[in-house]
Amino acid sequence: MTGVPARAALPETEAMDNRNTVWRHVDAQKERLIALSDRVWAMPEVCYTETRSCAEHVAELRHQGFRVDEHVAGIPTAVMGEAGAGGPVVAILGEYDALPGLSQEAGVAAHRPVEAGGHGHGCGHNLLGAAALLAATAVKDWLAETGTPGRVRYYGCPAEEGGAAKAFMVRAGAFADAEVAISWHPASFWEVAPPLALANTRADFVFTGRTAHAAAVPHLGRSALDAVELMSVGVNYMREHMPSDARVHYAYLDAGGIAPNVVQARAAVRYSIRARDLPGMLGLVERVKKIAQGAALMTETEVEVRIVSAVSNLLGNDPLEQALHGVMEELGPPHFDEADRDFAQAIRATLGDGDIDAAFRAIGMPRTEAPLADFLVPLDARRNPAIGSTDVGDVSWVVPTVQAHAPTVAVGTPFHTWQVVAQGCSPAAHKAMVQVAKAMAATAVRALTDEGLREAARADLARRVGAGGYVSPLPAEIGPPLRMSVA
Ligand SMILES: [Zn+2]
Q1: Which helix (H) or strand (E) segment is 53 a member of?
Q2: C-alpha 184 – ligand 1 centre gap (Å)
Q3: How far is the CA of 140 from the centre of ligand 1 (A)?
Q4: What NCBIfam families does the record tag this protein with (predicted)?
């Protein structure tokens, strides 16, 4: 017979005991980790500057008795905590970076910044990191209680928003001996996260020309700003001739100053270039580079291309998705109460009808009017998701990876908005955080005790990666963009 695992899965009664034990450990620690999430929410730090948020995670890891490695992959705000001995290694991934410009008070359904222009947790990573650490802590305590061989690792990963920290951590070998990776993301729904994310490169194009008095001697000037504008025109003409699921967007980093009477000698633009897979993305990056060179040629300026970061597309894993789905079905969605629904309803009133429609279209299910998700999205739902990018992509190429979504926000809340920040410490978000920690912890326990599942997950990954293997999208010469905000 083929397909028989090397060691059979545990009998169901024993597996259920394990789940109940690890869930008891989640409940025992949840208040500490909810408090951690709220503290991180209140100290929003962006892209590689998460010094205090990371220190909070380090302190909690030490308090819980993990063996702690700081400066993972040479990144000052990356940390890893390990517990247990021998056996397989299960990785649980957390994040704690915020977004610029999204400062917002908690618990109000109106746009009210705490600090004008300040940062905010607009993607819910305060919850993401705390729930992942809660799950890892419970698995640690379960390992200790049952004496099971195996290790759990919490990876505190900074700079998910544009910094590609996990891609650098993968390149440095931080996941080399992990057999399964588990994570989650705040969302509208209770579901296994669809394994779809675009490969993405961020690149800065810095043009240098020659300054001159724009009225007296314009013929002596060579405008870097002209070059940036021409590059944008070229890229916008390219759009019609690229795959329809590719995405290219840009932001001006430096428009050359505020004086129209000075020919701009320097200008810089940052591009984000995304495609369905790595070869598609790398091809598109080369085309954008050619357009930049064309703009430089037209304007007699020079262009320097600096790749800032890059991430791979996400690979799914059928056996792990089925395992996580089973646990999420058993747990059910978080138990929200009337007060949770009232606040979600107030947030919902600030959304457009299109936001709510889009959320249901993404999961391929008919729209309902409950303000907080109260069902599990089927694994085989006919989804039409809005697809972004994540640095979990790179982990998913080297370790079988699975992620959950838990409803921390009113259904339809678009991410990277003040509404997400406003809901980031709500009782509903805390309930979702604890429920998803239980889903991750039970999936980790299953992976630690079921060699057949690990083998099937490994085989599924090998099939998806194919003969070409994993090639990091990061150019060999670049390191983590620790000072990325500086052009
Ligand atoms: Zn996010």
Answers
A1: helix 51-63
A2: 9
A3: 26
A4: amidohydrolases (TIGR01891)
Between the CA of 144 and the centroid of ligand 1 the distance, in Å, is 32
Q: Is residue 234 part of a domain?
A: yes
| Residue 316 token pair | 């799914």
Distance 134 CA to ligand 1 centre (A): 18
Residues 172 and 299 in one domain: no
- Gap between the Cα atoms of 270 and 255, Å rounded: 11
The CA 423 to ligand 1 mean position distance, Å, reads 14
The alpha carbon dihedral of 189, 195, 196, 201 has a sign of positive
Predicted local distance difference test score (pLDDT) of residue 172: 97
Tokens representing residue 260 in the block = 């129209």
Type and span of the H or E element at 463: helix 451-465
The Å distance, Cα 161 to ligand 1 centre, comes to 7
Q: Taking 90 as the threshold, does the pLDDT of residue 386 lie above it?
A: no
At which of 269, 286, 311 does a domain end? 311
Mean pLDDT on 210-237: 97
Q: Is the pLDDT of residue 90 over 50?
A: yes
Nearest residue to 73 via CA among 2, 165, 149, 197: 165
pLDDT-derived band of residue 3, with 50, 70 and 90 as boundaries?
Answer: very low
CA 381/CA 361 separation, integer angstroms: 10
Identify whether residues 375 and 256 lie together within a single domain.
Answer: no
Q: Are 487 and 268 in contact (CB under 8 A)?
A: yes
Residue 379 alpha carbon to ligand 1 centre in Å: 22
Are residues 184 and 237 both part of a single domain? no
pLDDT at 8: 62
Which one of 259, 291, 311 terminates a domain? 311
Using the predicted structure, report yes or no on whether residue 310 has a pLDDT greater than 90.
yes
Q: Where are the alpha helices (DSSP H) in 64-172?
A: 125-146, 165-171
Helix segments in 119-216, DSSP class H: 125-146, 165-171
Q: Give distance in angstroms: CA of 123 to centre of ligand 1.
A: 5
Distance from chain centroid for Cα 228 = 30
**How far, in Å, is the centroid of ligand 1 from the Cα of 10?**
35
% of the chain residues with pLDDT over 70: 98
What one-letter code names the amino acid at 246?
A: A
Cα-to-centroid distance, 74 and ligand 1 (Å): 22
- Domain range for residue 458? 12-196+314-465
Query: If you count them, how many residues does the chain have?
Result: 487
Q: Residue 253 to residues 134, 206, 443: CA-CA distances in angstroms?
A: 38, 9, 43
**In whole numbers, what is the pLDDT of the chain averaged over residues?**
95
* pLDDT score of 485: 56
* C-alpha 229 to ligand 1 mean position (Å): 31
For 15-71, write each residue's pLDDT tens digit: 999 999 999 999 999 999 999 999 999 999 999 999 999 999 999 999 999 999 999
